[in-house]
Structure formats: C-alpha cells, structure tokens
Amino acid sequence: MDTSDEDGIASDQKTRDELIKLISHLHAQTNMICGEGLDNFMSHNDEIKSNYLWSICDLAERSLALLGSMDSEIMLRFQSKNS
Fold first, then answer.
1. Taking a C-beta distance cutoff of 8 angstroms, is the pair 8, 72 a contact?
2. Tens place of pLDDT for every residue, the chain, 83 residues?
3. Integer Cα distance of 59 and 33 in angstroms
4. Strand ranges for 1-83 from DSSP E
C-alpha cells in the first residue's frame, strides 16, 4: 500500500476531528444564547457580548477554512492519481 495514501487518510481524519471539535464548540456557544434566551445574553455588558460574538465568528471562520483545506486536499489527490 502506498504510504502517501496512509498519510493522507491520517491527515484527513485529523482534519475531520478538528472540524467536528470546532463545530461542536460553535453549536454549544450558539445554543447557550438560544437555550438561555436572548434576554440573558443581552443582560451582559457590551464587552462580554462583543467577545462572545467574536469567538463565535472565529469558530465559524476556522471551520470554513478547515473545510476548504479538506476540499483542496481531496482535489489535489484526485488530480495526482489521474495524472
């Protein structure tokens, strides 16, 4: 078996695991706002709200970047196998 395929599979699994972790955190953070109600979130001071929302955006951005890297890796492997 080609070890580059094994390395790619391990890399894919690590990326998927990281993506699942980020999306799980994103879900938990947004669920706290929805689950506890917007009034509870709005009762915090502006700095806390701003930092909380920034962290949600950061998680979403990092998740999208990982997803994009997975797509790129898949395309590169597909192209190299068909060359």
1. no
2. 445 556 666 778 898 999 999 999 999 999 999 988 899 999 999 999 999 999 999 999 999 999 888 877 766 666 777 76
3. 15
4. none
Read off the pTM: 0.72
Distances from the Cα of 56 to the Cαs of 25, 46, 50, 67, 76, in angstroms? 9, 15, 10, 17, 30
Domain ranges of the chain: 47-83
Burial 19-38 (b: 16+ CB within 10 A, else e): beebbeebeeeeeebeeeee
Nearest to 54 by CA among 26, 14, 34, 28: 26
CB atoms under 10 Å from CB of 75, counted, come to 10
